[in-house]
Design a protein that fits this description.
Layout lengths: L1 E6 L1 H7 L3 E5 L7 H9 L3 H6 L5 E5 L2 E3 L10 E6 L28
Length: 107
């Protein structure tokens, strides 16, 4: 499957790449799979494409890691910045960081 990947923020700076077209194996059919495939490129890639460090959009819409990918999708990858939780409501890794809130109060 071919994807156009556009990098922003820290990944763009640290990897010294702004965009590329990649042809990935069929088993990389989700955002999580794509990130894992990119991590195979080596040390700095493994660090920058770590699922806990990035947020992604597919065809200009923010998406969670389980998002299925289709041939010719455009994937945008940027660093995870706190304060953008409204874009990642469905991302199970995001949890409020309020000492006064109990986990049962998270919604």
């Amino acid at each position: 499957m071919k994807f156009e990947i556009v990098y922003f923020g820290k990944p763009k700076e640290n990897l010294n790449i702004s965009q590329e077209t990649v042809d990935v194996p069929e088993e990389s059919l989700t955002l999580s799979g794509l990130l894992a495939w990119l991590c195979l490129r080596g040390d700095v890639w493994a660090q920058e494409m770590n699922e806990d460090r990035v947020r992604c959009a597919v065809n200009q819409e923010f998406a969670g890691l389980a998002k299925p990918l289709n041939d010719n999708d455009e994937i945008a990858i940027t660093a995870h910045y706190h304060g953008c939780a409204e874009f990642w409501v469905d991302d199970p890794r995001l949890r409020p960081n309020h000492a006064r809130m109990k986990p049962s109060e998270w919604s």
